[in-house]
Amino acid sequence: MFARDQLSYAGVPLSARPDITDAQMQEAAWAYYQTMKKRHTVREFIPREVPDEVIQQCIRTAGSAPSGANHQPWHFVAIRNPQIKHEIRLAAEAEEQKFYSGGGGDEWIKALEPIGTNADKPHLDVAPWLIVIFAQRYGVFDDGDRFKNYYVTESVGIATGFLISALHHAGLYSLTHTPNPMGFLNKLLNRPKHEKAVMILAVGHASTDATVPSVAKIKKPLDEILTLI
């Protein structure tokens, strides 16, 4: 990070410098794709415990993501307390009920039909962990003075991608959940007003009868998402 009296640039040697061939790069890239294409969002979890250390290491990976000016404008709250998880579920379902009762608009609700979602969120109770991701609109020095954060949305998005990938690599499943609005999370989790909740990740092991929406298997082909110049 940084402090007000340490704002000058100082370079350090690059420590990680893999020396691999083009063929090895291709193999590594293909292997990672094969791993990540097996990642799927699920809504059916089992209450099997996940060790604290696993969650901590995955969040450590998320914290290694690049960010605007290296301000790292994120905070992760990992919750396994059943009562707090249930309170989050009740508050989230209250917002979701408004959404599915018409607040989301016909087009948006229609678009979600192939996903099979509704206002009921039992996974928020069943999954052993909920990770709430907060974006920090600005930073605060120890003396209370504020400083500006840059590219907050982009930075937190990258860190979230790191986290989801790390959880999958550790053999876990996750479900992204974004009830709107999410201001209730600041109150429930005692987070400061300059932080904004952007996502709840339910994390754990998938149940043996977990299903994936068939539409989730349909991905755009490479030629639709890539332009080589």
List keywords for this structure.
NADH Oxidase, alpha+beta, 5-stranded antiparallel beta sheet, about 40% helix
Write a structural description.
The chain is α+β, with helices and mostly antiparallel strands and 229 residues long. It has a single domain (51-217), classed as NADH Oxidase, CATH 3.40.109. It is built from 8 helices and 7 strands. The strands form 2 sheets. Strands 1, 2, 3, 6 and 7 form a 5-stranded antiparallel beta sheet that branches. Strands 4-5 form a two-stranded antiparallel sheet. It starts with 21 loop residues before the first helix and ends with a helix. The model has no long low-confidence stretch (mean pLDDT 94).
Low-confidence stretches at least 5 residues in length (pLDDT < 50)? none
Total number of distinct structural domains: 1
Order of helices and strands: HEHEHHHEEEHEHEH
The CATH H-level homologous superfamily: NADH Oxidase
Question: Residue share in helices?
Answer: 25-40%
Q: Strand portion, in percent? A: 15-25%
Question: Averaged pLDDT, please?
Answer: 94
* Number of DSSP helical runs: 8
CATH topology, what is it called?
Answer: NADH Oxidase
Number of E strands: 7
The assigned structural class equals alpha+beta
**How would a textbook summarize the main sheet?**
5 strands, antiparallel
Q: CATH class, anyone?
A: Alpha Beta
Name of the CATH architecture: 3-Layer(aba) Sandwich
* CA distance, first residue to last residue: 36 Å
Which geometry do the CA atoms define?
A: globular
Please give the radius of gyration in angstroms.
Answer: 20 Å
